[in-house]
Amino acid sequence: MKSFQSGHSRVMCPNIDCGIDLALDALSCPKCDEPLPIGLRDDLLEIDVAHSGETWTEALDKLEAAISFARAQRFKGLRVIHGSGRSRDDDAWEGPGRIRRESLNYLRQAAVDIDARLMPEKHNRGAHLLLF
């Protein structure tokens, strides 16, 4: 599973001897002509939107960037770590648990928009899988 860091808009050539940066929409490496995968990869891209001091708006920005990146790079899906929230009041608008609620709302809509499937991760209330 590859971890996503927000702000990365390029990937490296898979050829060990080359390794140059490639554009997200590249189909092959311009230096060594290594073809990039055409179908979906077998792995998930992982993003943590809740454990680096993010505000809920920053978390949604990271989530949007990760979905775009994962789709452009042909990952099977996205593993989103949003945290389980610490609030006992799930209806509270502010405070603990907001990143989880906002992330899930965004993921539900994204799943509809891009024809993906959203499912909770087994045995981890703090993560969901978005499968393309």
In short:
The chain is of the alpha/beta class and 132 residues long. It has one domain (39-131): Ribosomal Protein S8, Chain: A, domain 1 (2-Layer Sandwich). 25% of the residues lie in helices and 20% in strands.
CATH C-level label? Alpha Beta
- Give the CATH architecture: 2-Layer Sandwich
Order of helices and strands, N to C?
EEEEHEHEE
How many domains, in number, for the residues?
Answer: 1
In angstroms, what is the radius of gyration?
16 Å
Task: Name the beta content range.
Answer: 15-25%
In percent, how helical is the residue content? 25-40%
How can the largest sheet be summarized? 5 strands, mixed
Tell how many strands the DSSP assignment holds: 7
| Mean of residue pLDDT values | 83
Class derived from helix and strand content: alpha/beta
General shape? elongated
What strand order characterises the main sheet? 1-4-5-7-6
Distance between the termini: 15 Å
In the CATH hierarchy, the third-tier topology is known as Ribosomal Protein S8, Chain: A, domain 1
Counting H and I runs of at least 4 residues, what is the number of helices? 2
Keywords:
132 residues, Ribosomal Protein S8, Chain: A, domain 1, 7 strands, alpha/beta, elongated, 5-stranded mixed β-sheet, single chain, 20% strand
Give a written overview of the molecule.
- The protein has a single domain (39-131), classed as Ribosomal Protein S8, Chain: A, domain 1.
- It contains 2 helices and 7 strands; from the N terminus they run ββββαβαββ.
- The protein has helices spanning 56-72, 98-113, and strands at residues 2-3, 10-12, 21-23, 44-48, 77-81, 117-120, 127-131.
- The strands form 2 sheets. It has a 5-stranded mixed beta sheet, with helices on one face. Strands 2-3 form a two-stranded antiparallel sheet.
